[in-house]
């Protein structure tokens, strides 16, 4: 089940992030790796800066987390992680799709490490496209607050929502849900 996380989930969020971030060890540049990958102070700062975390919860266990942050005129997907013991179960995809549905801007951006090819493939599978190196540098400087070295070693992927309203938004609902046919009308 997906739910918005609260301060009561802080330690669990931190645990999921640091467990899943082990995948970066030996992949990202050594000068970018640290232990823990994210400290409690860093997580606190992210939340203070407006990152809202959502999680995949089974029973009382938090298995995956993803953050969403509105910055200026766009939406950022932040800190998407699933416990290593629960990966490959579509938890990350379900969280990402949920957060994409919450985004109010027509553009959604995500940044990740250039060498994290599995993460890049994951986002591309969900409709995100890599931007050029020049555009990446511009976007990272505009929407993120990260060191220059991280800008050098990262990529940005963009998802653009369609500008046309969905059938549901235009009043066309599937049969059986508030439709003329469900009320006994004939067509």
Task: Supply database-style keywords.
187 residues, seven-stranded mixed β-sheet, disordered C terminus
Produce a short descriptive summary:
The chain is an alpha+beta fold and 187 residues long. 30% of the residues lie in helices and 25% in strands. It starts with a strand and ends in a 27-residue tail after the last strand.
Sketch the topology as an H/E string, one letter per element.
EHHEEEHEHEHHE
- Order of strands across the main sheet: 1-2-3-4-5-7-6
Are there runs of 5+ residues with pLDDT below 50, and where? 164-187
Beta percentage is 15-25%
Shape: globular
> What's the gyration radius in Å?
19 Å
Structural class: alpha+beta
How many β strands by DSSP? 7
Number of continuous helical runs? 6
The share of residues in helices is 25-40%
- How far is the N terminus from the C terminus? 39 Å
- Largest sheet entry: 7 strands, mixed
Question: How are the SSEs ordered, and which strands pair?
Answer:
Layout (H helix, E strand, L loop, with lengths): L1 E3 L5 H11 L19 H9 L3 E7 L2 E11 L2 E9 L8 H12 L4 E7 L3 H9 L3 E2 L2 H11 L4 H5 L1 E7 L27
